[in-house]
Amino acid sequence: MAARQTDVSLSDVLVDCYSLTVRVRPQAQVGDQESSWWLSSVYGPQDDSDKILFLEELEAIRDSCSGPWAVCGDFNLILSETDKNNNRINRANLSRFRRTVEDLELQDLHLHGRCFTWSNEWENPTLVRLDRVLVSLGWDEMFPNSYLRCLGTDALDHCPLLLHTNLGSMSKSRFHFEVFWPKFADYEQVIKDAWRCQPASRGPIP
């Protein structure tokens, strides 16, 4: 974990089995406790028995760190069946993860531009969203213009995540409909083709 010293200070470091947690303070407000927030970077285990310990660790972090909190990294768990492109899903682990997120009152930041963040890179690949950012309500209120997106990579099976904490006000995309469109002979066929069209990229690798 690293930061520009001219921008923020990192303190109160907590090192656990699967996570590293720090208090983040903007340098312009280093004495201001209310402007600080907690950041946990995680790398979830692969073994099912260790996943239970990992989720208990998240609960213990929350007990030690009150206030706005963001948790990011590779959780090695999924929150929804749509986080995987096949039906080989451990529903017990999914339920445990979802229950922990609900108990900790965290919300999953929307990931723009990708459905999945990991690929096994086979010819018929398994695609999973293992990487995410979970935030508390206090953090979301502190950064209402946050924006999470994936970066491309040619060297990794995971897509790096880039979280903008203040992207500025973003205008919502608008839908335009011209009244003359239905007059074209191929109007209905264009609509049908567009409706059936698959997204250009659903996997983590561009």
The proportion of residues forming helix, as a percent range, comes to 10-25%
Order of strands across the main sheet: 1-2-3-4-9-5
What is the level 1 CATH name? Alpha Beta
Low-confidence stretches: 200-206
Count of distinct strands? 11
> Helices and strands, in N-to-C order?
EEEHEHEEEEEHEEH
Write the topology of this structure:
Layout: E1 8-15, E2 19-26, E3 37-43, H1 48-64, E4 69-74, H2 91-103, E5 106-108, E6 111-112, E7 118-119, E8 127-128, E9 131-136, H3 137-142, E10 147-150, E11 161-164, H4 187-196
Parallel strand pairs: 3-4, 6-10
Antiparallel strand pairs: 1-2, 2-3, 4-9, 5-9, 7-8, 10-11
Protein model, in words:
The chain is α+β, with helices and mostly antiparallel strands. It has a single domain (8-196), classed as Endonuclease/exonuclease/phosphatase (Deoxyribonuclease I, Chain A, 4-Layer Sandwich), CATH 3.60.10.10. It is built from 4 helices and 11 strands, in the order βββαβαβββββαββα. The protein has helices at residues 48-64, 91-103, 137-142, 187-196; strands at 8-15, 19-26, 37-43, 69-74, 106-108, 111-112, 118-119, 127-128, 131-136, 147-150, 161-164. The protein has a 6-stranded mixed sheet. Strands 6-10-11 form a 3-stranded mixed sheet, with no helix packed on it. A two-stranded antiparallel ribbon has the order 7-8. β7 and β8 form a beta hairpin. The chain is globular, with a radius of gyration of 20 Å. The two termini are 26 Å apart. The model is unreliable at 200-206 (pLDDT under 50).
